[in-house]
């Protein structure tokens, strides 16, 4: 389903006067507003192909209807998001949930929708029909060499799909670990996993990156073989220059200081990218910025300061991806909210007077440092984010266009109430 540009323009016309007033007010206090707007326009967030349908938990799944039934419809749905917010110009595929039947057709359809292919994701946490060896007791860590080799071969196959589509990175998340003391020899599991990642690393084209995603628990509940940033950092360092860590916000133990982890990994040049979401307890995969927006701002504050210190381009220097699961909300509305929350946190971080903050830190003037930081966080930057979107041809208010155009109703009419999407 496409949304015609004139429909977006009509909706903008109704809101332009109020927007110009709000934008005029906030931009008065911004010294480099044009530079900031350009950075906001350039900042694109990749949408996960596995989060366009209704997610579920082991307790139940409540289908919302009109879900994409194949990769083509997933690309169309992300194209619709991108038409509205001009900030979702990439799709991240998960194999085998999204194996392209015809690379040329899929590339052409993605291009028509203004989308590029971001990181490819492998899957050695589920057994596929007809699969020779089970991943029940892990994949790259497995005690059986045949299972490890099967997992290595799968990741190399995922790289091959990515090369055909024009992707340039692979995310490896391993569900591997143990759920009971005594179940696993940690050192052997670590060594097997390193050897497996090294085989996969050898298959990477020169311009590719490998993201090693860590997670504290689930689906294993005693140990995870890539359980925290330190273990991921260890693997990435041992693998080589093309290997980086990937920070999924929901993969930490309660109260972990994620912004400090980000600052350290960035400082070491080993931060590869993000899976943005939010959570209150575990890997809840909730809407970005819906539970702890201040933490998201603090993370972007470290990113802007750290990337500028390394002369990195904000838009292309790291992998910006969402990883969420929509159990009770419309997946497309949820993703529109998540992209907006990411852009707001980025805009607030761009407002931080880094020089003044560093001076306050040098003076141990904690109160002044807090006021500088919270001053940026308490600035309503939404008119700046909206202005960047408007200048990119997007909607001032994507959600209101999505609803006024009755997109979900139309998707249910064309795809049916029972349509189910592959993914989580
Ligand atoms: C694991 C994870 C990983 C994906 C999966 C869909 O929790 O975050 O990034 O492969 O979700
Ligand atoms: Mn993830």
Automatic annotation (TrEMBL):
InterPro entries: L-rhamnose_isomerase, Xyl_isomerase-like_sf. Keywords: Isomerase, Manganese, Metal-binding. The keyword Manganese applies. This is TIM barrel protein.
């Amino acid at each position: 389903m496409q949304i015609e540009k004139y429909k977006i323009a009509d909706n903008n016309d109704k809101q332009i006067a109020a927007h110009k007033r709000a934008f005029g007010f906030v931009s008065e206090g911004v010294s480099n507003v044009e530079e900031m707007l350009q950075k906001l326009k350039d900042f694109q967030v990749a949408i996960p192909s596995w989060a366009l349908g209704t997610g579920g938990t082991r307790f139940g799944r409540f289908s919302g209807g009109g879900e994409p039934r194949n990769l083509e419809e997933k690309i169309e749905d992300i194209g619709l998001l991108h038409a509205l917010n001009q900030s979702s110009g990439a799709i991240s595929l998960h194999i085998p949930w999204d194996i392209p039947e015809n690379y040329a057709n899929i590339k052409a359809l993605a291009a028509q929708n203004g989308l590029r292919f971001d990181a490819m994701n492998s899957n050695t946490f589920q057994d596929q029909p007809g699969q020779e060896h089970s991943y029940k007791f892990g994949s790259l860590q497995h005690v059986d060499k045949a299972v490890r080799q099967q997992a290595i071969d799968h990741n190399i196959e995922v790289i091959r799909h990515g090369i055909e589509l024009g992707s340039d990175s692979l995310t490896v998340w391993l569900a591997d670990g143990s759920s009971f003391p005594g179940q696993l020899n940690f050192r052997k599991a670590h060594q097997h996993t390193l050897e497996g990642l090294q085989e996969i690393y050898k298959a990477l084209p020169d311009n590719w990156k490998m993201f090693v995603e860590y997670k504290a628990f689930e689906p294993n509940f005693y140990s995870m073989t890539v359980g925290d940033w330190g273990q991921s950092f260890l693997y990435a360092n041992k693998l080589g220059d093309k290997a980086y860590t990937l920070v999924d916000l929901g993969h930490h133990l309660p109260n972990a200081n994620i912004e400090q982890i980000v600052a350290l990994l960035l400082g070491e040049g080993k931060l590869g990218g993000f899976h943005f979401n939010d959570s209150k307890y575990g890997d809840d995969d909730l809407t970005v910025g819906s539970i702890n927006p201040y933490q998201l701002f603090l993370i972007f504050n470290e990113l802007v300061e750290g990337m500028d210190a390394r002369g990195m381009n904000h838009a292309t220097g790291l992998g910006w991806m969402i990883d969420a699961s929509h159990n009770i909300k419309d997946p497309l509305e949820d993703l529109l909210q998540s992209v907006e929350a990411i852009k707001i946190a980025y805009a607030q971080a761009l407002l931080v007077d880094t020089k003044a903050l560093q001076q306050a830190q040098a003076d141990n003037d904690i109160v002044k440092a807090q006021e500088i930081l919270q001053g940026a966080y308490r600035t309503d930057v939404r008119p700046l984010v909206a202005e960047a979107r408007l200048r990119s041809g997007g909607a001032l208010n994507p959600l209101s266009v999505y609803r006024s155009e009755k997109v979900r109703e139309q998707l249910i009419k064309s795809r049916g109430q029972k349509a189910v999407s592959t993914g989580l």
